[in-house]
Task: structure prediction
Amino acid sequence: MNANASIKVQSAQRSVGVTQAMVAVFLRDVRVAFRQKQDLLNPLLFFTMVVTLFPLGVSPEVAFLKQSGAGILWVAALLSVLLSLDHLFRHDFDDGTLEQLMLQPQPLFLLVLAKTLAHWMLTGLPLVLLTPVLGLMLHLDGNSVATLCLTLLIGTPVLSLIGSIGAALTLGLRSAGVLLSLLIIPLYIPVLIFGTGTVAAAVEGAQVSGYLALMGAFLVLALTLAPFASAAALRISLSNS
Amino acid sequence: MWQFFHKLGSPKWFFGIANRFMPWLLAGGLILLVAGLVWGLAFAPKDYLQGNSYRIIFIHVPSAFLAQSIYIMMASAAVVTLVWRMKLADVFVKSVAPVGLMFTFLALFTGAVWGKPTWGTWWVWDARLTSMLILLFLYGGVIALDRSINDEKSAARAVAVLVLVGVVNIPIIKYSVNWWNTLHQPATFKLTEKPAMAMEMWVPLLLSVLGLYLLFGWLACLRMKTEILVRERRTRWVKDLVLAGRK
Amino acid sequence: MAFDSFSAFLTMEGHGPYVWTCYAVFVILLAGTVFWSAKRHQATYRMCKRSYEQQNPKGQTAPKAAATFTRVEISQD
Result:
């Protein structure tokens, strides 16, 4: 099925357009993901389970959950994205699709960007959609759930983008998963701080548009810089093997 | 200019230069460091606010300085690795990263011990301490990545990419941690802002900072020489050098 | 001298344990790194030397073989 999809990529490339190639890569990743539905479900299950651990492990009291619910959800979302990053390039690396992508006339960083966006749509977006339910279970009120979803909506693409650099760097290495977490978690800290900080500000009744604008700035920065870094890292990793 | 630049990249040339400068770096570094520390420990007047515990500053500040500037130096070397593929640059990054990790740990450790008598606790989620901790993680990531890629060339370039990504992130991390800190911490803990320093405290601090920098230079040269020996052991010049008994 | 006696210097008005722990850890770690790096340099140097001497044994430097072997040279390049 991968071969079938990559033929589609190649036929799309013959009609030259960069946007077309990006769309083709994006659609292919989505299609491949929907044929392996378990990979789509795993991050969501993981997300729910991590969130469940906190009331069980720390305290089921409403006051505690109200106060730390946003932080718990953010940390859980961050970990689920981290967990799913290993798949971002792994299958394509194993079956050689990645090398084909690299040989395309279109700039690699744009194709990587398309892949990363597909990854976000398949993991980050479902997490955001699941958040209101879990938010209710953690006794968050409507206002903070809304802000939380908004911050996750802006924040999870940043997580995918930064994560793509780590996934590209650790491609084909032994124990890549652990290494990936080591490399990427420090880089996730600003997003986490602002994500949870925005919700905290919303709970206190402060104006959050400034914080959201700042998170938007993170997103723009990540969108412009991360694809270059991951494309460079991919070239290095592939020349290695 | 370009000739000099090319020379700079040649491991052989570096070996000669390093051998010439290393004794001076070691001697100068040790003298300045010992002078600074002895002065700071025994002769500098005690601080009217913190008492004698402030004497930790003479090792805390130099360690923190080095921890941060080593990362900056590594980032500059990473640019050179990626743009000019200069061998010496990635030798530098590889040999110096563990030293940077050590200084970051020292800065954190001395900061924590200093915190006990001044703040009353070992650890405060203070902005500076937290960003230092994150710097420690960044160093750890760089070393871990370097260790897990077998091929020397791709290890060098992958590490260079990671270091650069990290250096872009450092200001963002610092800023966000500061922001987070003002959000969560009561302002009473802000003892990191020191009053203007007396001359008798400032001079020994300067001495120990300079001394530690020189000592780091020596250490970097030594570790780079080791790395060059390993990498270039099949070349003629290393063979001649080793058989001639020059270290 | 900022202290009246040597014992005052050691106790530092109660802050001695903190200050001295810091300085001890600093010295141990720094000296350890220096020592370990120097040791590793020595070891690498010796390893190189040994491998060169094995490559072209020059009478006195090469160890005498206790028994006769046929050496098979395999090129590393």
Summary: Chain A has nine helices and no strands.
